[in-house]
């Protein structure tokens, strides 16, 4: 819950995960520096914008050890602030925003929203900023739309523009971000809107977890928590937290970009290996792609294949799709299920109905780019892509424990 509350943007998520890794004994490397064997040995991490890669080097001197990789993503569907964000309409000051990813439009109505992300000064310096509750997207009163409960339709351009001020009260949003940054001026920004309500435990036994950005900060938390407590082995234990998964992963820091492959190449080279050594290692390696799964919804049971509909607090779901929307194969499914069984951890399976196409995630992209055997798994949840989502409190812990077992 503390990681969720500390991570209203991918940049904040990376900062929080970096702090946790550092507290666990990891040392940060710069992607711009030269690396040698002493640089990459031990517990290390690198970060680039909204992405992070961390690893524990093997105890053996082999230049290209087997790689045991866990992948997740730091981004979530939301609104992003546009370059000219100040809009005045009918005495209101509003924010010009762009929809990022596949949001549930109605879930963002009537919530207390904040702004968070990265700002860049005219000199090119960057810093993170975060406001408290500062904006809101008010829904139209039922008296002005008597048929709203028969079907709500929202135009993203006209109906989802947040209000943040009345008339010319106070400063502009750019001035507000500048004041928070401490810079004399700011030139550009990567700013997300987020629901300021903190994460909360619900249920009669407090068995449920409600928060924004469960998809996919739950998997980021599990990956960081797990690698922080494992012992060094003969394998390269590695996590990658990619950005931009919700918009296709095609970026320098997305799963389709070069950063992970470059880091692996440099680690192997620093240990005295070649590109051929890395290729051979990848053929012996495995990736767990962790991204949340759809739990069976009690109000919409017809949307699920009941033989493949995971339930909350009954373990991570192994996700399968024969059309390669997920990268799971029979061999990777067997391997992960066997690891969990030996560790006494439950697993489930997810497969969508034939008439409801499933989404996808970083697993197929990572498998395609690296040629690494991959499985897609995830914590079951409800309200996926809502401003506020719901999962169980046991499943994230089980997920982290399965990573520890994987690396052991």
Helicity, as a percent range: 25-40%
> Describe the biggest sheet?
9 strands, mixed
Q: So, the CATH homologous superfamily of the largest domain?
A: Zn peptidases
Number of helices: 10
Strand segment count: 20
CATH architecture grouping of the largest domain: 3-Layer(aba) Sandwich
Rg, Cα atoms, Å: 22 Å
Tell me the overall shape: globular
Low-confidence stretches: none
Overview of this structure, please?
- With 408 residues, the chain is an alpha/beta fold.
- It has two domains: 2-76 and 212-407, Zn peptidases (Aminopeptidase), CATH 3.40.630.10; 78-195, Aminopeptidase i, Domain 2, CATH 2.30.250.10.
- It contains ten helices and 20 strands.
- It has helices at 2-6, 10-23, 37-40, 173-181, 214-227, 259-270, 275-283, 330-342, 362-370, 394-407, and strands at 27-28, 43-48, 51-56, 67-73, 78-89, 92-100, 113-121, 126-130, 163-166, 186-195, 200-202, 208-211, 236-242, 286-290, 293-294, 317-319, 348-350, 373-378, 380-382, 389-392.
- The protein has a nine-stranded mixed beta sheet with strand order 1-2-3-13-4-14-18-16-17, sandwiched between helices. The chain has a five-stranded mixed beta sheet with strand order 11-12-20-19-15, with helices on one face.
- Strand 2 and strand 3 form a beta hairpin.
- The longest helix is centred in the first third of the chain and has 14 residues, at 10-23.
- The relative contact order is 0.18.
């Amino acid at each position: 819950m503390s990681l969720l509350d500390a991570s209203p943007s991918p940049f904040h998520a990376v900062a929080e995960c970096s702090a946790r890794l550092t507290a666990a004994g990891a040392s940060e490397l710069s992607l711009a520096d030269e690396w040698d064997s002493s640089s990459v040995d031990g517990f290390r991490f690198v970060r680039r914008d909204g992405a992070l890669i961390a690893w524990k080097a093997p105890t053996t001197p082999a230049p290209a050890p087997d790689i045991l990789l866990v992948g997740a993503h730091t981004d979530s569907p939301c609104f992003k602030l546009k370059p000219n964000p100040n809009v005045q309409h009918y005495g209101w000051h509003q924010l010009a925003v762009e929809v990022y990813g596949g949001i549930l439009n109605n879930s963002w109505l009537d919530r207390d929203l904040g702004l968070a992300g990265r700002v860049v000064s005219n000199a090119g310096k960057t810093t993170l900023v975060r406001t408290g509750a500062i904006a809101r997207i008010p829904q139209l009163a039922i008296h002005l739309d008597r048929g709203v409960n028969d079907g709500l339709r929202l135009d993203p351009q006209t109906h989802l523009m947040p209000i943040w001020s009345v008339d010319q009260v106070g400063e502009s949003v750019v001035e507000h971000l500048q004041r928070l940054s401490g810079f004399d001026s700011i030139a550009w920004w990567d700013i997300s809107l987020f629901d300021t309500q903190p994460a909360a435990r619900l249920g009669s036994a407090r068995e449920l977890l409600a928060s924004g950005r469960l998809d996919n900060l739950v998997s980021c938390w599990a990956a960081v928590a797990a690698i922080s407590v494992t012992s060094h082995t003969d394998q390269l234990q590695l996590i990658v937290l990619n950005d931009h998964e919700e918009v296709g992963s095609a970026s320098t820091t997305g799963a389709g970009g070069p950063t992970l492959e470059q880091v692996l190449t440099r680690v192997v080279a620093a240990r005295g290996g070649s590109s051929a050594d890395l290729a051979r290692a990848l053929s012996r390696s495995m990736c767990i792609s962790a991204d949340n799964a759809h739990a069976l919804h009690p109000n919409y049971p017809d949307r699920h294949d009941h033989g493949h509909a995971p339930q909350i607090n009954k373990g991570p779901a192994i996700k399968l799709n024969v059309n390669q929307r997920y990268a799971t194969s029979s061999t990777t499914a067997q391997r992960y299920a066997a690891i969990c069984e030996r560790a006494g951890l439950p697993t489930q399976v997810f497969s969508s109905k034939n008439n409801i196409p499933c989404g996808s995630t970083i697993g197929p992209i990572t498998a395609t780019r690296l040629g690494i055997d991959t499985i897609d798994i995830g914590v079951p949840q409800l309200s996926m892509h809502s401003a506020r989502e719901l999962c169980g409190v046991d499943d994230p812990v089980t997920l982290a424990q399965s990573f520890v077992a994987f690396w052991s």
